[in-house]
Amino acid sequence: MKIIDAHIHCCFDFEPFSETAAFAGHKNTKEHIEKVFAENNIVHAVVMGNISVEPSENKYPKNMSYCVGLDSNCFEKDKKEYFINKVEENLKLRECVGIKIYPGYCQYYVNDEVYAPFYELAAKYNKPVAIHTGALSRPDGKLKYSHPIRIDDIAVDFPKTRFVMCHFGNPFLQEAAAVAEKNSNVSIDLSGLIEGNFDLEDYFKKNKYYINVLKCWINYFGDYKRIMYGSDWPIVNIKKYIEFIKRIIPEKYHEYVFYKNAVEIYGLEEK
Ligand SMILES: [Zn+2]
Questions:
Q1: pLDDT for the residue 270
Q2: Whether the model pTM is above 0.70
Q3: What CATH number does residue 119 fall under?
Q4: pLDDT class of 67 with cuts at 50, 70, 90
C-alpha cells in the first residue's frame, strides 16, 4: 500500500531534531529518511514548516510538500502586512499546500482576529490551515489555546476555509470528535499520538483503555474520508507508528487514511 505521511517536520542535521530522531530509532539525515520512506512505501510527505515564512528557506526534497508555518512573531501588529504578503507568496507555489499554525505555543485562541487574514488567504488559494491541537511538548505552552473546541468557531465563521485538526486534539479526543463531526470543512490527522521507539505489543497491552477511547471517538466522528495518517517525524518510529495506526483504523479504510485523503485534502498529485 502506498502511503503519504501528512505531517512531518524536516530540518536535517539540526541538533534538537537529531536527538529526537535518535530517541525514535532514526537518524535525522536526508539519506536516512529516504531509506525509511522506501522501506515503508511512503511516496510523499507534507512538512509542517516552522522555520521561516521566506519561500527560499522552505526548500524540501522533491517527494515533500509543505505548509508554511506561522510562529508567534508572525502576529506582531507592526509586521502584519509583511507576514500576510509572505504567506501569500508561499501559497502561490505548487509545493506549498497549506498554512500551519501553532496555538498553545502561540498564545492566541484560534478564533483570535490575528489569524483571520490567514484563514481568508487559505480560502482564496483553496489550501487548508493545519492547526496544532492538544498536548504540548514545551512547558511554557498553554493548553487552553491548543484545546480543539474553538475550531468550531472558525469552521462556522470561515465556511470557505478548510481546516486540519492535527493530532486529533489528543488527549481532548471527545471535543475534537464533536467539532470534526459537526463541521465538514474540518479534517483530522492522527500524527504524534505516541513518541519514541515503542514496543507495539507492550504498548497495546499497557494502554488498552486509552486505545479503546481513541477508537471510540474516531468511530464517533466516523468520516474516514477526513482522517489522514501522519507521523510527526522525527518524534516517533515510522514503521511502528504505521502499524499502530493500521490497528486503530478499520482495514477497509486504510487506502483512504494512508493515501487518498491526503491527496484530496492537500491537493497533492497522485503518485
Ligand atoms: Zn507536528
A1: 85
A2: yes
A3: 3.20.20.140
A4: very high
